[in-house]
Structure formats: structure tokens, C-alpha cells
Amino acid sequence: MIFFWAFVVGGLICVVGQVMMDVFKLTPAHTLSTLVVLGAIGDGIGVYEPMIDFAGAGVTVPITSFGNSLVHGAMAEAEQNGLIGIITGIFEVTSAGISSAIIFSFIAALIFKPKG
After folding, report:
1. What is the pTM of this model?
2. Cα separation of 20 and 31, whole Å?
3. Which of 3, 16, 1 minimizes the C-alpha distance to 58?
4. Which is nearest to 56 in space by CA: 101, 13, 104?
5. Count of domains forming the chain
6. What are the per-10-residue average pLDDT scores of the chain (116 residues)?
């Protein structure tokens, strides 16, 4: 049943993004930013973690989880290190994902012929 709910909830997040682009005529950059902010707000008000428990990868794979990670890391480090922890927490939690995206993009650019 977890696969079903992951599909449904992840699909609903994607539908929200698609509606933002099709109906509201937002650019992909605006849609991406809005979804990241919605994920951050969801973690800030305590709704995102129960959604992760309920839908698993359906909530952790879409871009909303990046906003969740930013706020989650900042809040966790702020508890330990105070105000400076807000900045360090953001980098600590998201650095692995950002670093791997840069490394794999570089490798892909070496293997394939990028246009531009």
C-alpha cells in the first residue's frame, strides 16, 4: 500500500506544479521556487514529516523535499549552535545532494557532447 500512496501523493505534488505552469502561466523557475517554498513552509509548520511517514518517496523525491531539507537542517543546527547554526545547518544537510548533482553533471558533460 505504501507504493500506492507514494504514487498518489507524489503525483499530486506534480499536478500542483503542472497546474501552476498551465493555468497560472508561471515559468518553470517560478514554479520550482514556489514548490521549494511550499516544502519549507510544510516543514516549518510540522506537516512535512507526517507526510514523509505516510507517503515515503512520494514526498521525498519531488522538489518540495529540498525546501523541507533546508528548513529541517537550519532548525536542527539552530537548536545546537544558535543563530550561526541556521546558516551552517542549511549547508550541512543539502551539501551532499548539491555536490553529487555538480559531480554527475560534470561527468555527463565529459561523456556526452553538451550543446551551448
Report:
1. 0.81
2. 6
3. 3
4. 13
5. 1
6. 96 97 96 96 95 95 92 92 90 87 92 80
State the Cα–Cα distance between residues 33 and 27, nearest whole angstrom: 10
Range of the domain at 87: 2-111
What are the distances in angstroms from CA 11 to CA 17, 24, 62, 80, 108? 10, 19, 9, 36, 28
pLDDT at 94: 85
Is 104 among the domain residues?
A: yes
Task: Copy the grid coordinates of residue 12.
Answer: 499530486
DSSP-derived 3-state class of residue 100? helix
- 116 located within any domain: no
Is 89 part of any domain? yes
User: Is 93 in contact with 78 (CB distance < 8 Å)?
Assistant: no
Alpha-carbon distance values, 25 to 17, 21, 28, 30 (Å):
11, 5, 9, 10
